[in-house]
Amino acid sequence: MLLQPKQLKQSPAITDRAQTIHAVIEEIRPNLQRDGGDCQLVEIAGSKIMVKLTGACVLCKLSSFTLESIQARLVERLGEFVRLVPVAGAAQARQ
């Protein structure tokens, strides 16, 4: 189960940090979707942020560059080091 924007707003356990992470990923998604791919937030576990690449992003040779770009934007926005970790399959979202 992937984290959805409604879950972020409704859950009192979700912090401003989690909302910032979600917002950064949502900013990137339209560009990926235009090319037939997508990136969805799966889980936030401390400094690890798990995302799932789908569609054209799965086999794209530039997916590592995409992940590095998202990670750099997250580090910039959060002001702390985070590690973006791609996951495969149907991962369970944990808050």
UniProtKB/TrEMBL annotation:
InterPro entries: FSCA_dom_sf, NIF_FeS_clus_asmbl_NifU_C. Residues 21-83 form the NIF system FeS cluster assembly NifU C-terminal domain. One of its GO terms (biological process) is iron-sulfur cluster assembly. This is Nitrogen fixation protein NifU. It comes from the Bacteria. One of its GO terms (molecular function) is iron ion binding. Belongs to the NifU family.
